[in-house]
Every structure is written in structure tokens, then in C-alpha cells.
Amino acid sequence: MKSLQIRFLAVFWLLRCADWLQGPYFYETYSSKVFNGVPASLSTVSNLFLTGFASTALFGPFVGRMSDGRGRKRGTLAFCLLYILGAASTKSGVLGVLLLGRVMGGIGTSLLFSAPESWLVGDAMTVEGGGDYLGETFGLAYAGDSIVAIIAGQLAAIAASKRGPTGPFELSTVFLVLGGILASFLWKENVASNSDGDSTKVTIRDAFSLIAKDKKIAMIGATQALFEAAMYIFVLQWPPAITAAIGSMFGEGVATPYGTVFSCFMASCLLGSSIFSKVTSKASPSSNTVEKTTSVMLALATLGMASATFLTSGVIPGLNILYPLMASFFVFEACVGMYFPSIGTLRSKYIPDSHRGVIMNLFGIPLNALVVSVFLSIKFLGVNGALGVSSLSLGLATASMLALRSMIGKKEEDTSAAIP
Question: Which of 36, 49, 114, 417 is the most buried (most CB within 10 A)?
């Protein structure tokens, strides 16, 4: 299992570094383009952003099905290729090429968040007792991911200073190539299999049927879609919220240290991942520790976001909100750090390997639909309204996880009653 962890983490961290590198300079890269002598407008940049999200939602289930049926290693390598092509497209000044690049990036994103995890779980099931160490592996993966994100932010700044706003995209291709090479040599292929370990044909219709029949899978899907939608909405709204708070405290025109704030967020994520690893390392594999921990985490995330929503509402005029607002955001980011290893462990526990990739991508449809809806309505909602939507989404995610725990408790009671 240690060998499996090393082989997975080496590839996973390289691919995540490539993804993190492309984030900080997304807006600057596309806003620097000139079309027919006219600089790219905010509307154009927004449409490019939404194209990536729409591609993830539309094509995710299909690429998830292909990854399950033809191999998770192939799916990971396909992600590398798509992301390399998407990064290369940023060098173009043709709108059609940029849109195509965003489509490839969106499809690649759906593979990044399903194929490597599915490969890990599938391979772990071939190791005796391997499933018992998945929680530990996910904890290590996302604790390391927080450190990778901090490093990637610094590397992106250096690349941008030397090569312009597309520099981080160019650098990301290096990590994608390295990750692809390591996956090619260190990973053996695995495909979706049924409960008997035999390979099985993957269909989207069957995946829908599995979700409909097993309410536990549906609750995990609801938790994933609602939490990650709240997270992506937060990503779009924390910069203006903090800028307004800093302007209110120190006066307009004071620069916002986005890089420092981002690093603090990643440090909070690292704390959350470390807490998850500490808690689950002492739990027995048969316990429901992850379900209980996730419920508490979701409740804290809801409180943190609700607090931020209240602070940005302006209900109390003259209130200095900067420090409590930052504290609320740090609490939420710590919960994000706990969320990813938690949801990865829960998916490995309840989603059957036969349709793992396609089901994970089906959950991305409502996620992306909610994010796009909020983004399109941002002029009406404003920062405070968007944070309010995040709070509501997190509250519903908490309710979904509590429903899952209730189902598990009822099943245990029925099992106990059946034993003579």
C-alpha cells in the first residue's frame, strides 16, 4: 500500500500543480487579448470562463464513462493532453481558438477530478486491506495539495514576470508532461469492475439507475454538488469582499495583497487536511468516523459562510468587518481542506467501482449549473447575495450528510435486529 501511495501521490501532486498554475493569471491572460483592434471586454472574459464550466457539465458524464470503460490511467493521460492543448491555446489571439481551448480545459477538469481518484480506489482494491488506507491516502493527497498550491502561486508569479500572463500556462505544461510520463511508467491500467472483480460495460443510464436505487449515493452526490458549488462561488467573491473591507478600514486605493491572502487560505486548507488525517488515523475502518467528522465540518463551513454573509450585508453601519470577515473565510477554507479527503473517502466507500467515474461526473452537472446561474445573476445578487447563496448551499449539504448518517444508522439497527 505504501508503494501504491507513492506512485499515486507523485503523479497527483504534479497534475494538481499544473492546475494551480493556471488559476491565478486566468483573468489577466484573457483580458490582455485584442480582437479586431478592440481589447477583450469583461463580458468576453466571462464567456470564456463560463465555457469551461459548461464543458465540464456537458461532457463530464461521457468522459467519465470512457474513463471507467477504457481505463483510468488512459483517462489521466487524456487529461494531460487536453490541458496541454488548452494551455497552448492561450498563446493565440483568435477568439475561436481560445474558446476551443476552454472547452478542452473543461473536459480535462472533469477527468482531473475523477480519473486519478478512480484509478487509486480501483488499484487499492487489489491490495489486501488496501481499502482501509484510502482515508489516510486522501488525507496525504490534499494536505500535500495545499503545499503544492502555495508553491504554484509563487511559481506562477515568477513565470508571469518573465514570460507575461501566459507564462504560468506555459510552465504548467512542464508539470503535465512530467505527470503523464510518471503515470505511463508507474501506473498499471485498471477499468471499472463489478462486485466480483470482473470488468463491466459502463453506461450512463445504469449510473442514473444506481443513484436512484441507492439513496446513500444520492446523498453523497448532493453533498458534493452543493459544497463544491459554494466553494466555486466563494472563489469568485472573496476578492471583492476583502477589497471592500480593506478599503473601508484603510481608505480607498489601498492595494489588496491577494497573493498573501491566497497563501493564508492554503495554509488553512493544510490545517483542515491535517485535522482529517489525525482524526481518521485513530478510527477503526468499520467505524463511521468519516461520516461524523464530515457532518461537523459541513456545519462549521455553513456557520463560517453565514457569518461572512452577515458581515458583508452592511446591517451594522460603521462596523469594522475586516478581521472577523477574514476569520470567517479562514474557517471556511479549513473546512475545504477537510472536505476533499472526506468526500474522496466517502465516494470510495459507497460508490461502486463499476460506475465510479461516470457517477462522479454526473454530480458535476448540478454543481456547474448552480455556479453558472449565480455567475450570470451576479449583477442582481452582488457579493453579499452570492455569499448568501453559498451559505444556503452549504446548509443543504449539511442536511444531505445528516440524511446519509440517518440512513446508515437505520441500516445498522435493522442489521442488529436481524441477528438472533
Answer: 114
CB atoms within 10 A of CB 131: 16
CA distances from residue 87 to 101, 113, 170, 173 in whole angstroms, order as listed: 7, 18, 7, 7
Q: Rounded to whole angstroms, how far apart are CA atoms 240 and 260?
A: 15
In this predicted structure, the answer to whether residue 303 has a pLDDT above a threshold of 80 is yes
* Structural contact between residues 334 and 269, judged by C-beta atoms closer than 8 angstroms: yes
Q: What is the pLDDT of residues 189-226, one digit of tens each?
A: 988 775 555 455 667 888 888 888 889 999 999 999 99
Which of helix, strand or coil describes residue 39? strand
pLDDT at 413 over 80: no
The alpha carbon dihedral of 367, 374, 227, 409 has a sign of negative
Q: Which of 352, 69, 85, 348 is nearest to 61 (CA)?
A: 69
Calpha distance 408→219 (Å, rounded): 11
Residue entry with cell 459548461: 54
- For 264-296, what is each residue's pLDDT tens digit? 898 999 999 999 988 887 666 556 788 999 999
Residue 415 identity = T
Q: Between vectors from CA 376 to CA 372 and to CA 382, what angle results, nearest 5°?
A: 115
Domains, the chain, with CATH or none:
1-187 (1.20.1250.20), 201-413 (1.20.1250.20)
Measured over the CA atoms of residue 158, residue 162, residue 164 and residue 168, the dihedral's sign is negative
Query: pLDDT-derived band of residue 376, with 50, 70 and 90 as boundaries?
Result: confident
- The cell for 175 is 508539470
Whether 27 shows a pLDDT value over 80: the answer reads: no
Query: In whole angstroms, what is the distance from residue 321 CA to residue 45 CA?
Result: 31
